[in-house]
Fold this sequence. Notes:
The protein has 5 helices and 4 strands. It is α+β, with helices and mostly antiparallel strands.
Amino acid sequence: MTRTWWKIVLCVVVATACVAPWHGVAQEGAKPAQKNGGKPTKRQVERARETVKMLDDVYKTAVVLITDKYVEDEDSFAAGSAAVALFEAIDEKGWHTAQLLDVTGDPYDPENVPDDAFEKQAIKKIKQGKSFVEGVETDAEGKPVYRAMTAIPVVHAKCVMCHAHYADAKDGQAVGAISYAVPIK
Length: 185
């Protein structure tokens, strides 16, 4: 591996280490979701929302820092690719899922499209200008899951090196999104 790749990995590991110990830590007085008929309490949903907002800040900050410090040209390892690798590693550990999605209709990767009804509806709302969309669903095992999607605008001039079609995006316009699914504990 090149030195740059190791720096990217280090940034991602540090960002993950800052988040992972706090994810899912029960707050004093929190009630299990199984009480109240399996429906999560307002406090549990608020805690899940705060977790997603923190994760979103960490992930987006990492992508911007990697782009700024390590992306030099089209041959550089893309910060978006680093984010996808991080999302996969976190998902494999069972913490939560996160996925990059296209909002433009011209995805960089064919996998960056909505997978389910929540994502399809959230993408529509992101296209209409919302920056944060949320909901609570039940997973296949009947457990509550907090779903959220956050908008990704073009925030760095280097973004258009790999995404030429972003050059025409209006200031603040979402070109992508991150879809989250966080178990409610």
